[in-house]
Structures are given as structure tokens and as C-alpha cells.
Specification:
Largest sheet: 5 strands, antiparallel
Strand order of the largest sheet: 1-2-3-5-4
Mean pLDDT: 97
Number of strands: 5
Order of helices and strands: HEEEHEE
Number of helices: 2
CATH topology: HIT family, subunit A
Radius of gyration: 14 Å
CATH architecture: 2-Layer Sandwich
Shape: globular
Structural class: alpha+beta
Low-confidence stretches: none
Bound molecules: adenosine monophosphate, zinc ion
């Protein structure tokens, strides 16, 4: 756990969220400022700042998160979805605890 990390506080239970999934390694919760009708995040319980801070030791964890994405998306009613990992301030990252955004629903997302 990192002091002053909002996602570590969510994982510890001191900040409440709409949690949709939890196991020993990860938690998933609804984004507080959704950019689509369905928007949630999968977050490792281990505090890792970003994708840039991941090491080979996190390979299984990263794979687990990606495999969980379609399962949780389906549970949330999404037929298709977009994943986004903002990495570093220049990549638009605001919370420096690794997380994968999953969003969709409503209209077909524009091509990027
Ligand atoms: P990023 O810009 O990729 O670092 O995304 C951080 C995301 O965390 C943003 O989409 C925020 O809306 C979301 N967020 C920040 N605080 C909370 C919170 N307390 N509960 C749920 N989502 C949050
Ligand atoms: Zn953290």
C-alpha cells in the first residue's frame, strides 16, 4: 500500500466505490466520472505506479487483468468495449496506480 494513493485507499476499504469484482489480486469498480454508459476499471491490489513500472514479475498479473476484462464487460452488459491504459502524465494518467479502463455501451465508439 502506498500512502496518499487513492486506489490503495479504495483497495483498503477506506474510500468506498461501486465494486463489481474482487479477488486476491485485483479489484474492479465503476469509474466515478464515467465517459461512457458503462465505465469501470480493473486495478491490481499491488501498488504499481503505471505500466512503465511493471516488471517481468507482473506478467501473470497483467495477463489476468486482460483476461478478466471481457468477462466483466459481458457481466456489465457490454457486447463490445474499449480498453485504455493511460501511462504517465504525458499519457493522460492522473492516478498513479496501474489501472485498465473498460468502457462502452450506448453508441458505437468512434475509431481512433
Ligand atoms: P487515469 O486518468 O487513467 O489515471 O484515470 C483515473 C480515473 O480514476 C479517472 O477516470 C477518475 O474518474 C477515476 N477515479 C478517481 N477517483 C475515483 C474514485 N474515488 N472512485 C472511482 N473512480 C475514481
Ligand atoms: Zn496505490
Amino acid at each position: 500500500m502506498a500512502e496518499d494513493c487513492i486506489f490503495c485507499k479504495i483497495i483498503a476499504g477506506s474510500i468506498l466505490t461501486k465494486k463489481i469484482y474482487e479477488d486476491d489480486d485485483v479489484v474492479a469498480f465503476i469509474d466515478i466520472k464515467p465517459i461512457a454508459p458503462v465505465h469501470f476499471m480493473i486495478v491490481p491490489k499491488l501498488h504499481v505506479g503505471s505500466l512503465q513500472d511493471c516488471q517481468p514479475a507482473q506478467q501473470d498479473l497483467l495477463g489476468k487483468i486482460l483476461l478478466l476484462a471481457p468477462k466483466l464487460a459481458l457481466e456489465q452488459g457490454l457486447k463490445g468495449f474499449r480498453t485504455m491504459i493511460n501511462t504517465g502524465a504525458e499519457g493522460g494518467q492522473e492516478v498513479f496506480h496501474l489501472h485498465v479502463h473498460i468502457f462502452g455501451g450506448g453508441e458505437i465508439l468512434p475509431k481512433i
